[in-house]
Design brief:
The protein is mainly alpha-helical and 152 residues long. The protein has six helices and two strands, in the order H-H-H-H-E-E-H-H. The protein has a domain of 101 residues: Orthogonal Bundle (Cytochrome Bc1 Complex, Chain D, domain 2), CATH 1.10.760.10. Helices cover 51% and strands 4% of the residues. The N and C termini lie far apart (76 Å).
Length: 152
């Protein structure tokens, strides 16, 4: 009698385990608990593109520099004078060793180096609104590019 009970318990345990694993494997998994609606996605894109537009204006020597309290250049130069297209910056290769700096640098550090050295401007905060806008514009210009950090 005791053998039969043990056998029944073993069968129930194995069956329960099999059913549990099967249900777990067949249940869809998502990183987000709720999918974003089309309206949410449009709002996200609109907000992003506003930042990209600000970065575009800053990159070409305009933009709200006075409003942001920044000086990107004292020489009258703009990023676009050396890099006519933001794609010339090759953001997909960062972080990488930068000869000018003699160290491995990220894109934001390189942006600040360009502001300070050739443009004789004032370094901007690494997480400032202006830095995020410049980085967003540069990265947007590379949409679809394969990321290859460390390459030249």
């Amino acid at each position: 009698m005791l053998k039969n009970k043990s056998k029944i318990i073993w069968i129930i345990t194995v069956t329960s385990l099999f059913v549990g694993v099967t249900l777990f494997l067949l249940t869809p998994v998502s990183a987000h608990k709720k999918r974003h609606s089309a309206a949410d996605m449009q709002a996200f894109d609109d907000a992003y593109m506003e930042v990209v537009k600000m970065g575009d204006a800053l990159f070409h020597g305009g933009g709200p520099q006075d409003e942001l309290g920044i000086t990107l250049s004292k020489t009258g130069m703009a990023c676009a004078m050396c890099h006519p297209f933001a794609s010339d910056v090759h953001p997909h290769q960062f972080p990488k060793f930068q000869e000018q700096m003699s160290e491995v640098a990220g894109l934001r550090e390189m942006i600040n180096w360009c502001i300070e050295k050739p443009n004789e401007g004032v370094m901007i905060g690494i997480d400032s609104e202006a830095m995020v806008a410049l980085e967003a514009y540069i990265m947007w210009s590379h949409k679809g590019t394969i990321i290859e950090p460390g390459t030249h």
